[in-house]
Amino acid sequence: MGATRLVMLFWALSAVDVALAGARPSEVAVGALFTYDSSIGRAAQLAIELAVDDVNAEGTVLSGTKLDMVTQDSKCSGFLGTIQAFQLMEKNVVAVIGPQSSGIGHVISHVVNELHVPLLSFAATDPTLSASEYPYFLRTTISDYFQMNAVASIVDYYQWKRVTAIFVDDDYGRGGVLALGDALAAKRAKISYKAAIPPNSNLDVINDVLFRANMMESRVMVVHANPDTGMRIFSVANKLQMMTSGYVWIVTDWLAAVLGSSASRDIKDMSDIQGLIVLRQHTPESDAKNKFISKWNSLARSRNINSGLNSYGFYAYDTVWTVACAIDQFLNSGQQINFSTDPTLYDSNGSTMHLSTLKLFDGGEQMLRQLLLTNFTGVTGPVQYDSDRNLVRPAYDILNIGGSGSRFIGYWSNHSGLSVAAPEILYQKQPNTSTSPQQLYNVVWPGGSTTTPRGWVFPNNGQPLRVGVPIKSSFKELVSGKGPDNVRGYCIDIFNAAAKLLPYPVTYQFVTIGDGTRNPIYIDIIRRVAANSLDAAVGDFAIVRNGTQLAEYTQPYIESGLVIVAPVKKATRSAWAFLKPFTLEMWCVTGALFILVGIVVWLLEHRINEEFRGPPRRQITTIFWFSFSTMFYSHRQNIVSALGRFVLIIWLFVVLIITSSYTASLTSILTVQQLETGITGLNSLISSSLPIGYQAGKFTKRYLTQNLNIPMSRLVPLNTAQEYADALNRGPKHGGVAAIVDEKPYIDIFLSNYCNFRIVGQQFTREGWGFAFQRDSPLAEDMSTAILQLSESGQLERIHDEWFSRPSCASDDDSEVGETRLGLRSFSGLFLICALICLFALVVFFTRIYWQYKQYSNFEAAGEPSAPDADSVKRQQRLSSLGSFKELIQFVDKKEEEVRRKMKRRPSDKDNQAAGSSYATSVDSA
């Protein structure tokens, strides 16, 4: 109590400066209501007495004012407890400590709400005693809300998914189980069965309740009861063989209170509870706690009390100090303790209830405010309230019953979850429950087993597992049958093989669904599983979104997905088949391009290459021969010019693409089947307005309408493979369909018997087939593990090969099915590039020719002899004639070498001519 005294001293010193409105009372009455003769009451009674003595002896708290504790025995009765609460109110108490029972707490909370008297309970843990409904109720112990979160953490730690809640059917039990359900839901677990035991039940009633609970599949039992009923539960459970290996028992803190209070434990009772996991409120070790324990034990020995101290005694002791500190602050703030008559309470004529004696505490609201501001360190640790009016730092010890006592296996706190480190150490660190490893020490389970129980078995009600099986009129390789005892198929063999690998025996009975003439609706079967009409569904069930919302699926045992199948036909043999790879437009443009390239190359090579010269007939032949021989890379002419070689390289690349495409297209036309409709894949399917077939009863219809937005008017339901073939053969024009959308396994079976159909496009969904079980069923996980074992051992593939023969007439490669004629659009870009290259070469060529022609013309003009004006006129006429188009053509036709030679000879001729003129002049002069 050293820390407590420091806090009290601070409060006392701060109160010196407070101006008191009047004299402090010499005595303040506080009520206490609990059951004296009970495990919790015996510990609380001595603790309250010690606390009152310590408060009155402490000079820094309630200085000059004595704390008077008025106690009443509720005798473990709701009715008597309520009466005792009224009697306490008649004595003008400023607060009431108690009650011990949550049920009584619900009743008298209405009383204290009316009279404004704070009610502080050290044992009423029902979380439904909410502050919003009962503003004057204040819990001075840990709420069961946190205890049930601790239980859920233990369940999640061992990966159990379903528990059976065994509880006393009163406010305390129902409130705790409600909190347990919420806590388990947050861990993706749930209460599978609620075994409610009426209060004060005898052994026969408890036996009936536990017998029904034992019929259920869960073997994780959570017991939330009171000490009297709880110990009888274990006695009956032991007789029903429910304390053996495979069972799990998790017990709330009431059992720890019983064990702590029992100084000399009954050996028989301990034998009934071996292997249990028990929670106990955690109180950190401190000098104040050890001092209190020593004083409590001394007082118990002096009074010959055989009962021991439990954790509720600690909370009862701190509750008295909480009230004392609040009263001290209330008085130090200048408040007066006054009571007034409540006008709503009066005694009717002839009534002997004396309701008028109940007074309204005028300072109740201020007193409640001071209680909520409590902040000191007691024997239970920090005593402080959060915004939800719960004690801060809730924590529990987790014990494992074994031998003649219990063994510590870990802690739970709201700060860090499960751990083996003390909560007060972990509270010094940042909360990180999402990533910090949850840890507990090893547990010895009922029956002495150290292996963690599986936590569930098949219901022990003599009923086999109800397995629904769809019976259809087709695709009998997958599942078929004429009755529950005559079910067979690929899916059934997979299920039977997986069931044999389970680590426990499974009895099941097939329930056939469907008349064999029309397909059942698969989602309706899944709904029957969700509604508990079936325990499982086995067959060709695709794992799709709307199904997973209703049931739990296993690991897929076969891959699946939607594909499109369409009718095809063999290409007709024709003598003109070699023309079919290209369209007429393509042939024309390709031929024109051949001639164009030939002309371009001839122009570029004509002036410098002898192989491209000669008579006109020879040159025309050369153009055609050169251009078409490049198709086979057999042209003999050498290309000399740089521009000609550049054009030829580009053209040979174009020829390579054209010939390769022609070869591939011709091969496809001669060997691959052709589509009868224009549907070549998913895009063409969606964009067209043709009717589409689908398998009735499956998810395909929903996918096509909701995901692909295909109108319902285009969809045609089909049931059998024969209906598939008939609808495809008739086609859209005769009441059939253009294509069928279905899952790949069905189409594989269909195509193995019908050869004139093919899969077009790619598979556009990715699903798998699995077995469906009820939500959170542990069997789904175990069956998934068994399916993986079948896959790893190769047995899954062997079962597949037994039922699915290789298609007898379907091609292994369906990717080439479709239209194979190539049009101009496929090569437009390539042709455009080639044409632009040719144009570029011609522009460069003619630019160069024009420049040469201008140079050549100038040299021709400069080479004419000087003459009179008449001669000048003739020269200009000659130049005009040279510049004509005819002269230009003649110039282009000239050899490059000849032009260059003439242009080089003209300057020398002018020199000779000039020299001759000079010589003549000199002769004349002489």
Automatic annotation (TrEMBL):
Membrane topology: Multi-pass membrane protein
Region Disordered, annotated ranges: 896-926
Cysteines engaged in disulfide bonds, as pairs: C755-C809
Domain Ionotropic glutamate receptor C-terminal stretches: 464-806
Extent of the signal sequence: 1-23
Top-level taxon: Eukaryota
Membrane spanning residue stretches: 584-604, 639-658, 830-851
Matching SUPFAM superfamilies: Periplasmic binding protein-like I (SSF53822), Periplasmic binding protein-like II (SSF53850)
Keywords assigned by UniProt, alphabetized: Disulfide bond, Glycoprotein, Ion channel, Ion transport, Ligand-gated ion channel, Membrane, Receptor, Signal, Transmembrane, Transmembrane helix, Transport
SMART domains the UniProt entry points to: PBPe
GO annotation terms (biological process): cellular response to oxygen-containing compound; monoatomic ion transmembrane transport; response to wounding; signal transduction
Positions with biased composition (Polar residues): 914-926
Pfam families, per the entry: ANF_receptor, Lig_chan
Biased composition (Basic and acidic residues): 896-912
One cellular component (GO) term of this entry: membrane
Location of this chain's protein in the cell: Membrane
Location (main, coarse): membrane
Function, as annotated: Glutamate-gated receptor that probably acts as non-selective cation channel.
Family (UniProt): Belongs to the glutamate-gated ion channel (TC 1.A.10.1) family.
Protein name listed in UniProt: Glutamate receptor
Native source species: Urochloa decumbens
